[in-house]
# Entry
Amino acid sequence: MRRRRNRTQMAAMDQINVTPLLDLTFLLLIAFMITMPLMEYGTNAAQPPEMNSEKLPEENFISVSLTKSGTIMLDNDAVSKEDLKKKLLELSDRKPKPQLLLRGDGSQSYKAVIELLALVRSSGFNDATLVTQAERN
# Structure
């Protein structure tokens, strides 16, 4: 009598185990969920103080930042006070006039931020918006 070979070993080969694939997918999802909020302020050196505020505009805006070290940034370029005033005077003549967002690092003194605000206002931007971080509850 001939014995039939047991086919249970072959039956297991026609299925794909997706558990490791799902584990990897969830790991990547969690990693991106953790890193995305950290990237929001990663490009700017200024960390504004926390306060509830409205949403920032998504287009037609200029960003002026006062960093922790006292450097003034126009969008992503470091500028002096004189250069900032010249560039803002040029930009204030544009149609439509861009909205100006002013960021001051939370560790900077109130006086330094107000002096920068006065410079911005003297350059033709009377409606500058002070940017803050959302409060954490």
About this structure: The CA atoms of residues 8 and 90 lie 79 Å apart. Residues 19-39 form the longest helix (21 residues). The mean pLDDT is 77. The longest strand covers residues 61-66.
